[in-house]
TrEMBL record:
Pfam families: BBE (PF08031), FAD_binding_4 (PF01565)
Residues spanning the signal sequence: 1-19
Protein name (database record): FAD-binding PCMH-type domain-containing protein
Source organism of the structure: Linnemannia hyalina
Keyword Flavoprotein included in the entry's annotation: yes
Length: 596
C-alpha cells in the first residue's frame, strides 16, 4: 500500500511512506485532479492496479515497484542481510547505477529534505524523490510504451541511465522512471551514412560508433580502441555516453583535440512525447537535431546516438604533480603562475584536470602526440617556479607515456577527476572562464584573486571544500558554430571550466542545507561578476543558477530552443530541472505556473 501526503503547488513538500510493498495501490478519491498539475497517487486520476498490471505486461514484465536504495537499513523495513549488502555498495557508483532507486548524489533522492539516506536503522525512511515505479527498458518498444503511459495518464516522467546527475534531472517525486541502462548496445562502423543523406555527399568514409542509451564511456572507449579509433567522451568509465552528457554539450579529456561531444553527433533516434520514433540529423528533422546537440534534455527520449570517431592518437603523455603548502600566500602565487600558462599550454595541445584546496593542489594534465621529453620540458618552468618557494613542496611529479588514449584511461581513469564521489550529499557551482582572461596580466590577476575569495567562501560552507580546474576547452572546442549546434556560445570563447563543490552529512537540518545552497549561489556570483555575458556547463552547475536560461543556453539560443521544445513537447512531458521550458512549471515541476 502507498500512502501519499501532498501539498499541491508548494515545492518540495511531498512525502511518501511505504507500508507493505506487496499490497496493491489504493485508488483514493479524496482529491480532485487539477488539469494543470501532474496526477498524483492520492488522486482519482492515478491508474488502478489493473492499469499498472497492463503496463507491466506491455513491457514484458519489466515494471519495478521502486523504493529508496537504503530502505532495508531503516525501521520498520530493516533486514540485516539486505542492509549488509547496501552498506557494502552505498558509496560505490557502480552499485548505485545498478539500483533503480539510487542516484550518484543522495541529496537528489530526497524531497523537501525528506528521504531514506545512509544506513542508520533508527532514522526515518521516506520515499522522497524516488519514483513510484520504474520501467527497466530493454527495447525501443518499451520506451514507447512508457512514454505513452506517462502521457496518457498525466504522470511525471523521469529518464535515468546511470544516475550521474548533478542537477537531479534523472529522478522525480510521484513519477514513473524510464530506466535505459540495459539498452547498452555498442556498434563500431567504418562508414556511416545518416538516414536521408544524398549518397553523393558521403563519398568519403565517416567512421562512427552507434550507441544505445544505456552505454557508458568505459565500454565505448574499449570498443572504439579495438578498431583503432577514439571518440569524444567523459573522464570516468561509468558516466552515461548518450543522455544528458552529450545533450548538454559533453566535454572530456580529448575535447580540445576534436570538440565537444555535441560537435561530433551524426544522428539521433528519439521517441517523442506522442510515443513515435523519429530520426534527427542534418537531413531529417534538422531543427530538433540542432536542439539535441547542446540544448540539454527536455525534448524527447533518446534511444540511439551516432557519434563520429577519429583516428587513434600516436601516443599520449600523462603529467601529474601534487603541490603542498601550509603557507597559503605562497601557494596562491604559485597558482597565479599556473593560470597564466594556460594560453600557451592550450596552443601546445594540453588538456586535463586539477583539484585545488587551500593547502594542496593535484594536477593531472595530458599532452597527445608528443615525446616524454617534450611534455617534461613544457611543464618544467612551472615546476621550477613552484619550487622557488621554500614553503611549497612539489610531490609525485611524473610524466608517464602511453601508446593509446585507452591505455592511459585504463591505467589512470580512477585517478582522473570526474563524477566519482558516490553516496554523498553534494552540490556544484561553476563558471566558464574566457580565454581572453588568460592573455593579460590584468586578467590573470583578477581571476586569481577572485578564486582565492571563491575558495574561502566555499570553506566557510564546508571545511573540506575546494574547486576543480577543468582544462577542456580551447582548441577545436572554439571552432564550433551556433549554426550547427545549440551549445552554449560561451563554450566557444572559453579555456577553463571552474567548479566549486560543497558537501554535507545526512544529519544536516534541511534549513541548513538551504542556507548552504544560498551561500554556494552567492559565492559562484564572484565568478559571474568577472565574466559578464558568459555562462557555464549546465551538466555541472548550480541547480539554483540565477539567469539560468542565459547561463546554460545563451540569450541568442534560448528563444529558438523554446520554440522547438513547444513544437515537440507542448505538454512538457520531458520537463526537467533548469531545462528548456521548465520556467512554465513550479519548483517541484508537478504543476504549471499561472494559467495554462
Amino acid at each position: 500500500m502507498l500512502i501519499l501526503l501532498v501539498t499541491i503547488g508548494a515545492p518540495f513538500t511531498t512525502t511518501l511512506v511505504h507500508a507493505d510493498p506487496n499490497d496493491s495501490i489504493p485508488e483514493l478519491s479524496t482529491a480532485t485532479a487539477v488539469p494543470r498539475c501532474r496526477c498524483l497517487p492520492d488522486q482519482a486520476c492515478w491508474p488502478s492496479s489493473d492499469v499498472w498490471s497492463a503496463l507491466k505486461d506491455s513491457v514484458d514484465g519489466n515494471l519495478i515497484a521502486t523504493f529508496p536504495a537504503a530502505r532495508e537499513c531503516h525501521d520498520p523495513y530493516y533486514d540485516k542481510v539486505q542492509c549488509d549488502k547496501i552498506q557494502e555498495g552505498y558509496n560505490d557508483d557502480k552499485w548505485r547505477r545498478s539500483t533503480p532507486g539510487a542516484l550518484l548524489q543522495t541529496n537528489w533522492e530526497t524531497f523537501h529534505g525528506k528521504g531514506c539516506l545512509g544506513t542508520n536503522q533508527t532514522t526515518p525512511c521516506y520515499q522522497g524523490a524516488v519514483p513510484i515505479y520504474t520501467v527497466k527498458a530493454t527495447s525501443i518498444a518499451h520506451v514507447q510504451e512508457t512514454v505513452r503511459f506517462a502521457f496518457d495518464h498525466n504522470i511525471r516522467l523521469a529518464i535515468k541511465n546511470t544516475g550521474h546527475d548533478f542537477l537531479g534531472r534523472s529522478t522525480a517525486p510521484s513519477s514513473i522512471s524510464l530506466w535505459v541502462t540495459a539498452m547498452n548496445d555498442i556498434q563500431v562502423v567504418d562508414k556511416f551514412i545518416p538516414v536521408g543523406a544524398p549518397a553523393q555527399e558521403f563519398q568519403v568514409d565517416v567512421p562512427a560508433v552507434v550507441l544505445g542509451p544505456g552505454a557508458v564511456w568505459g565500454d565505448v572507449y574499449k570498443a572504439v580502441d579495438a578498431h583503432g579509433r577514439i571518440v569524444i567522451g567523459g573522464d570516468h568509465d561509468s558516466v552515461g555516453a548518450v543522455g544528458g552528457f552529450c545533450l548538454g554539450g559533453g566535454h572530456g579529456p580529448l575535447s580540445p583535440r576534436h570538440g565537444l561531444c555535441a560537435d561530433n553527433v551524426l544522428q539521433y533516434t528519439v521517441v517523442t512525447a506522442d510515443g513515435e520514433v523519429m530520426i534527427a540529423n542534418n537531413y531529417l528533422n534538422q531543427e530538433l537535431f540542432w536542439a539535441l546537440r547542446g540544448g540539454a534534455p527536455g525534448f524527447a527520449a533518446v534511444v540511439e546516438a551516432v557519434y563520429r570517431t577519429h583516428p587513434a592518437l600516436e601516443n599520449i603523455n600523462y603529467f601529474q604533480a601534487t603541490l603542498f603548502s601550509n603557507d597559503t600566500e605562497s601557494l596562491d602565487k604559485v597558482m597565479r603562475d599556473f593560470y597564466s600558462r594556460h594560453d600557451a599550454w592550450s596552443n601546445d595541445g594540453w588538456s586535463g584536470y586539477a583539484a585545488a584546496k587551500r593547502d594542496v593542489v593535484v594536477i593531472q594534465y595530458f599532452l597527445p602526440d608528443a615525446s616524454v621529453e617534450e611534455a617534461t620540458s613544457a611543464m618544467q618552468p612551472f615546476l621550477d617556479y613552484a619550487r622557488s618557494f621554500p614553503a611549497v613542496a612539489v610531490l609525485d611529479n611524473t610524466v608517464d607515456h602511453y601508446p593509446t588514449f585507452y591505455a592511459m584511461f585504463q591505467a589512470r581513469g580512477d585517478a582522473m577527476f570526474g563524477e566519482k564521489a558516490a553516496g554523498i550529499n553534494a552540490l556544484l557551482g561553476s563558471r566558464l572562464i574566457p580565454r581572453t582572461m588568460f592573455q593579460s596580466d590584468r586578467g590573470v590577476d583578477l581571476l586569481s584573486s577572485t578564486l582565492v575569495k571563491f575558495q574561502e567562501d566555499l570553506i566557510k560552507i564546508w571545511p573540506g571544500a575546494g574547486f576543480l580546474v577543468q582544462f577542456v576547452a580551447g582548441g577545436q572546442v572554439s571552432q564550433g558554430s551556433a549554426e550547427d549546434t545549440s551549445v552554449l556560445p560561451a563554450w566557444r570563447d572559453a579555456l577553463l571550466l571552474f567548479i566549486g563543490a560543497i558537501e554535507w552529512d545526512d544529519s544536516t537540518p534541511y534549513e541548513t542545507q538551504l542556507e548552504y545552497q544560498r551561500k554556494l549561489t552567492k559565492s559562484v556570483g564572484r565568478l559571474r561578476k568577472i565574466t559578464p555575458g558568459g555562462g557555464t556547463y549546465g551538466n555541472e552547475a548550480d541547480p539554483n543558477e540565477p539567469n539560468w536560461k542565459r547561463s546554460f543556453f545563451g540569450a541568442a539560443n534560448y528563444p529558438r530552443l523554446r520554440s522547438i521544445q513547444k513544437k515537440y513537447d507542448a505538454n512538457g512531458l520531458f520537463v526537467c530541472r533548469r531545462c528548456v521550458g521548465s520556467e512554465d512549471w513550479n519548483d517541484d515541476l508537478l504543476c504549471r505556473r499561472g494559467r495554462h
